[in-house]
Write the C-alpha cells for this entry.
Amino acid sequence: MSLLSPLEGQDATETIQAMVVAHGETATRLTPPVPSGAFGDQDGPFTSAGQFPVQRVLTPQIVLDRNNADAAFSIAPDVVLQEGDRLEVAGEQYIVLSTSPINLFGATTHQMVMTARVHGVGP
C-alpha cells in the first residue's frame, strides 16, 4: 500500500529522475555475449544495448565493501539491467552485481545499481 497518491508518486519519481539527469552522466549498457560453452564466455565482445542517465552515488566504503562493490549508481526505475551486464561510464566499465528498487512511501522512484569495476578496460 502506497502512502502517496498516484499523482504524488509520479511527481516523486519525476523529481528524482530530474536530479539524476541533472547530474550529467550517461551510461551505456553492454550486454554479454551469448554463452558458447557450459560455463559461458565473458571474453567475447559485449554488445551496446542503449544509453541512459546515471548518477554516481557517493556511498560509504563500508557499504561498498559489504556488497563487494566498487561503485553505486542511481538509474530510472524503468531501465532494465541484469546481473552480468556492464555499464560504461566516463570511459570506465563496471559489471552489474545487483539492482534494487528504491521506494518512497510505496512509490518506486529509482533503482540503485551496485557494480564492480572491470580492470584492464578503459583509462
Summary: The helical segments are 6-23, 61-66. The CA atoms of residues 86 and 95 lie 4 Å apart.
